[in-house]
UniProtKB/TrEMBL annotation:
Record-level GO BP terms: adenylate cyclase-activating adrenergic receptor signaling pathway; chemical synaptic transmission; circadian rhythm; positive regulation of MAPK cascade; smooth muscle contraction; vasoconstriction
Designated gene of the protein: htr7c
MF terms in GO: G protein-coupled serotonin receptor activity
Organism: Sparus aurata (Gilthead sea bream)
Residues in G-protein coupled receptors family 1 profile domain copies: 73-363
Matches recorded under Pfam families: 7tm_1
Xref: InterPro entries: 5HT_7_rcpt (IPR001069), 5HT_rcpt (IPR002231), GPCR_Rhodpsn (IPR000276), GPCR_Rhodpsn_7TM (IPR017452)
TM stretches of this protein: 57-81, 93-114, 134-153, 173-194, 214-235, 308-328, 348-366
Name the record gives this protein: 5-hydroxytryptamine receptor 7
CDD domains attached to this UniProt entry: 7tmA_5-HT7
Membrane topology reported for the UniProt record: Multi-pass membrane protein
Family that this chain belongs to: Belongs to the G-protein coupled receptor 1 family.
Localization, UniProt: Cell membrane
Protein keywords: Cell membrane, Disulfide bond, G-protein coupled receptor, Glycoprotein, Lipoprotein, Membrane, Palmitate, Receptor, Transducer, Transmembrane, Transmembrane helix
Role summary: G-protein coupled receptor for 5-hydroxytryptamine (serotonin), a biogenic hormone that functions as a neurotransmitter, a hormone and a mitogen. Ligand binding causes a conformation change that triggers signaling via guanine nucleotide-binding proteins (G proteins) and modulates the activity of downstream effectors. HTR7 is coupled to G(s) G alpha proteins and mediates activation of adenylate cyclase activity.
């Protein structure tokens, strides 16, 4: 008789080895045939989002609404300043520049981001267009942020130095300031095209350069420095408004004005001309005029402080999380890829884009003329729009 137990054991071992070899070969085959995007994402700890049809519909509709409202709001700003004579002032040129930058974000950047988000984060537009897209994104967003910074400086100088600050009355000087904003924005866009820092664009991936030096330079110029300037300007305007409020106490001023008006009218009707009354009335009139000017300055400073405070607050909430992430990413993930979850990166990016949506409505909320023009344009009341706005201004002046 033959001992078959050893033979059976040997056969079982051979079958196990065979299965291991086949499994290893299959794994190697899958690795070699896998797409570069999948390998790149897995090596960075990043996973593409796999959305179902209902999720894609909801996300697509929400992002499309954000884009459409951004286009509509900023288009209204451009049309309002160009059509209404009262708004066609050099100080409002900055609003037009801001609206153009935000409008560019909505038209040339957001649609491609929407398509990329609906595919779970996969770039579908090729390597060549990746550089162009990143350049447009960086320049338009930076121009928007830097214009907000220049607006804060303009508001501060216009309030604190109304006689020595000529830019508000000089259209050419304001145009040069706007040109400087766009040139500074271009200075951040050009380095990847000049060989300093190369953007990351492999199959399915389109990411701005993660070079350490370029990241620090671009985030500082595009966000941190403008943010610091805006905070300083807000603090100075707020301090000026507080000093003005402490210096001038306007309690019962309207009541005193009414009493003095009644007294003067009574004297005039009775024909009384006692000695010194005319001089006292003239002195009182000058005092009241001076206090009216002080009230006007105080209200203007408070309005500027409130407006700039809202602008800085919304700006910080929208962009600060994204730029903190962008600054820290190369130091955490390295310069070759991104290890940040796509859902977090895209959420913070769209939060930053939301600033372009909110800007036109923030300024309309604090500017009665702009708000009235919006209302007329949305109602398609184009005829006599300048006359109606002038009539509203006269009515408000008489009411005051």
């Amino acid at each position: 008789m033959y001992n078959t137990s050893g033979i059976e054991l040997t056969l079982n071992k051979k079958e196990d080895i065979s299965e291991v070899i086949n499994g290893t070969v299959q794994l190697l085959h899958n690795a070699l045939t896998a797409s570069p995007t999948t390998m790149w994402n897995e090596s960075c700890g990043e996973q593409l989002q796999d959305f179902g049809r209902p999720e894609k519909i909801i996300i697509g509709v929400m992002l499309a609404i954000i884009t459409a409202v951004t286009v509509m709001g900023n288009t209204l700003v451009v049309i309002a300043v160009c059509v209404v004579k009262k708004l066609r002032q050099p100080s409002n040129y900055l609003l037009v520049s801001l609206a153009v930058a935000d409008l560019s974000v909505a038209i040339v950047v957001m649609p491609f981001v929407i398509v990329t988000d609906l595919t779970g984060g996969k770039w579908l537009f090729g390597d060549t267009f990746c550089n162009i897209f990143i350049g447009m994104d960086v320049m338009c967003c930076t121009a928007s942020i830097m214009t907000l910074c220049v607006i804060s400086v303009d508001r501060y100088l216009g309030i604190t130095r109304p006689l020595t600050y000529p830019a508000r009355q000089n259209g050419q000087l304001m145009a040069k300031m706007i040109l400087g904003v766009w040139l500074a924005s271009a200075s951040i866009t050009l380095p990847p095209f000049c060989g300093w820092a190369k953007n990351v664009h492999t199959a399915g991936v389109c990411l701005i350069s993660q070079d350490f030096g370029y990241t620090i330079y671009s985030t500082a110029v595009a966000f941190y420095i403008p943010m610091l300037v805006m905070l300083v300007m807000y603090y100075k305007i707020f301090r000026a408004a507080r000093k003005s409020g402490a210096k001038h106490r306007f309690t019962d001023l309207s009541r005193r004005e009414r009493l003095e008006t009644v007294a003067n009218e009574a004297l005039r009707m009775q024909g009384l001309k006692p000695p010194g009354v005319a001089e006292d009335c003239a002195a009182l009139s000058r005092l009241l005029n001076r206090e009216r000017r002080n009230i006007s300055i105080f209200k203007r400073e408070q309005k500027a402080a409130t407006t700039l405070g809202v602008i800085v607050g919304v700006f910080a909430v929208c962009w600060l999380p994204f730029f903190i992430l962008s600054t820290a990413r190369p130091f955490i993930c390295g310069v070759e890829c991104s290890c940040v979850p796509i859902w977090l990166e895209r959420t913070l990016l769209w939060l930053g884009y939301a600033n372009s949506l909110m800007n036109p409505f923030i300024y309309a909320f604090f500017n009665r003329d702009l708000r009235s023009t919006y209302r007329d344009l949305l109602r398609c009341r184009y005829r006599n729009i300048n006359r109606r706005l002038s009539a509203v201004g006269v009515h408000e002046a008489l009411k005051v």
